[in-house]
Design brief:
Number of helices: 16
Strand content: 15-25%
Shape: globular
Structural class: alpha/beta
Length: 493
């Protein structure tokens, strides 16, 4: 994936001047060694921060080393002012953690009191209005702190990805899709750039790519990817022209940003002018870490991208679509994996899920819903171009960050799995199980007025995404609560 940040971790130890500085130095080395044992590359900054001059010196060394994610490690009590000045100067993702005492044989000169020091640090963090990553239990041995750093890394990648992201939008939302509203101000608050364009601009992108030398190579790559699923070989060069056009547009318009995603108008007029549906091209870009959200869902594209950064894997955008029939549940047997009927739903979209996320890679088909509307009673033509198949079984995370109608940010995260069940339907589709989904659906998705689109990460990513949201200052985060924990709006009777 070349559309997400590469993280370069830096480790700075701090020391209160009334504690032995060697204690922090020795403990920092132990943390670095534990990181390397886990396969984590981390740069040790030799400066131990005891005062403000040291903080400035450490900052200069971090900058010179190209560090973009910082761990401030309280090897002992630590100086609350200088350590938080360093975090403030650094500007990027910062984690705070502290050292646990190692042995009862050394609790005089070897006692660091970092448990206490984290309390002082937290107060100064609040005074400076910083939002660092603080682990759930931020005090530990070297090996335990290395594990905390491993959790911090993908959260840092999410934050840095957003700071370098530009969303390219084409066209207004289709009629009756006001749910995919996209107030722009919260995006700027996150550091995300937005470039809104018209449907005519998108058509011009397509036309300008006509005859490009890359088209035939892209079409051959499509044919190789589809294999036996290539039902419409005559369509591939047209789809390839669209893909080449989008990539050229992105390269020409990233500007000051580093990473790009799309939110494109895909119906109803698209098919008449372009002569296909864009779903398969969208799936291919998503497979390379460049999500293309359907129906000009700008926050859907944002959410997909955050899922990509959190996991390092392709993501997709699905409708939280339909219930699972009782007879399918009854015949599921062990494949049901203990989920209740109300824990289940079908996640569906027309055909934008990457082939690597579909059982057998999927196949090139036509968009049945659009065909009903635009080509009733005719052989599929302009509605061809979906990638359809069953979403592969395994762990997944549903996620969305949304700018609400009042321009506040709210989000949800729920881990679950795609079951090994045949959905017996069309599109890119799978049977999804989320514990207590029925209550989550009512008291988070409906109650908080989330749209029907959800980003799906193909890994358990709740821990990372929740931490990233907290660092971004998002306060309203919905999760699927266990049965014993009611929602505030849940009827107790």
């Amino acid at each position: 994936m070349n559309n997400i940040p590469a993280i370069k971790l830096g480790l700075v130890a701090v020391s209160r001047d009334c504690f032995p500085i060697e204690l922090s130095r020795r403990r920092r080395r132990a943390v670095a060694e534990a990181c390397r044992a886990r396969g984590l590359k981390i740069a040790e900054i030799p400066t131990i921060v005891e005062n403000e001059a040291h903080a400035l010196e450490a900052f200069d060394k971090l900058r010179a080393a190209g560090i973009n994610a910082l761990i401030i490690y309280l090897g002992n009590f630590g100086p609350e002012g200088p350590e938080t000045i360093l975090a403030q100067r650094f500007g990027g993702p910062v984690m705070f953690a502290a050292a646990a005492e190692e042995t009862c044989q050394d609790l005089v000169d070897g006692r660091g009191d970092a448990y206490c020091g984290m309390l002082n640090a937290s107060y100064n963090i609040g005074l400076r209005k910083l939002r660092p990553y603080i682990p759930e239990y931020p005090v530990g041995t070297a090996a335990e702190v290395a594990a905390m750093i491993a959790d911090f890394l993908p959260a840092a990648r999410v934050l840095l990805g957003l700071k370098g992201l530009k969303i390219f939008a084409f066209g207004p939302r289709p009629q009756d899709f006001l749910a995919c509203n996209a107030p722009i101000k919260p995006l700027y608050d996150l550091g995300v750039e937005v470039m809104e364009n018209s449907e005519l601009d998108l058509y011009d992108v397509f036309q300008q790519a006509k005859g490009a030398r890359e088209i035939k190579a892209v079409a051959r790559d499509m044919a190789q990817e589809l294999g036996a699923g290539n039902a419409y070989p005559d369509l591939l060069e047209k789809l390839a022209q669209f893909e080449v056009g989008l990539m050229k547009f992105m390269k020409a318009n990233l500007g000051a940003s580093k990473y790009g995603v799309f939110a494109d108008k895909c119906w109803p007029a698209f098919e008449k002018y372009f002569g296909f549906v864009p779903c398969y091209v969208n799936s291919r870009l998503a497979g390379r870490g460049i999500p293309v959200a359907c129906e000009v869902d700008i926050y859907g594209a944002l959410s997909e991208y955050m899922a990509v950064c959190a996991t390092g894997l392709p993501a997709t955008l699905l409708d939280i679509n339909n219930t699972v029939p009782a007879d399918m549940i009854k015949s599921a047997g062990k494949a049901l994996r203990g989920f209740k009927p109300t824990d289940l739903f079908m996640g569906f979209h027309c055909g934008n899920t990457p082939s690597c996320c579909l059982v057998g890679g999927g196949g090139l088909k036509y968009q049945l819903i659009m065909h009903r509307l635009q080509e009733p009673g005719k052989a599929p033509d302009v509605t061809r171009g979906t990638l359809e198949g069953r979403i592969r079984p395994g762990d997944v995370t549903l996620f969305r960050l949304q700018g609400a109608a009042d321009a506040t940010l709210r989000s949800y995260v729920a881990e679950g799995e795609v079951l090994d069940l045949d959905p017996k339907s069309f599109g890119g589709i799978g049977v999804v199980g989320i514990r207590e989904m029925g209550r989550f659906y009512r008291h988070v998705l409906i109650e908080k007025r989330f749209p029907h689109h959800t980003a799906m990460a193909f890994a358990p990513a709740g821990r990372t995404l929740f931490a990233a949201l907290r660092m971004l200052g998002v306060e309203d985060i919905g999760v699927n609560r266990p049965a014993a924990l009611p929602y505030p709006t849940e009827n107790p009777f």
